[in-house]
Structure formats: C-alpha cells, structure tokens
Amino acid sequence: MNVRNDWSLAEVEELFALPFMDLMFRAQQVHRLHHAPNTVQISTLLSIKTGDCPEDCAYCPQSVRYDTGLETEELMELESVAARAARPGKPAPPAFAWARRTDRPSRRICAR
Asked: How confident is the model at residue 14 (pLDDT cuts 50, 70, 90)?
C-alpha cells in the first residue's frame, strides 16, 4: 500500500461511505505499514497563552462566551518555552508541541 496524493473525488466519497469499523480497519492497516503496531508515542503539549480570549469560538473552553474564572496569563517568553521543552534532568519527550488560543498568530509571534 503506497501513500497517495492523487485521490479522485469518487475515491474519497467511497472511503466516506464505508462503515465506520471498516474505515478503522483500513486506517489500522495503513498505520501498521508505517509504525510499530503496538506502541504509543507519548507527547507533551504546553499552553503558552491561557485565559481571557476575546474570540467567540463555541468549541473552545477559553472563549469569551464562557465564564471560566481563569486569570489572563501573558504569552510565555521563548526562553521559558525552550526551557520547558528541554526538561533539565529528565529525558526529552519524543514530541513537544506548544499551543496558544487564537485564530491566527501575530506577525510578532511568527517572527520569533
């Protein structure tokens, strides 16, 4: 089974029409081609900006529509994020990701 990037609309619709368990089985077959079948990768996710979001996203618990009682935190400095990723004295996680609440990063953030 090869990785494809040339799917036709009919082929995609055929996948979406599969019963859920058949789709899961096909996904597992593809996964096993590229990954160890019985392992799980442990990753770390760090929130670098929390609370007081002015956007009204129904799916997000930090949205202005919800009263969470969270205090607004300033955006973490790059050095602090790097230090948390480095985990001094501990083994590095296989994957480290950071997240902040927003619909798009500012030019200032992208420049950093």
From this structure: very high
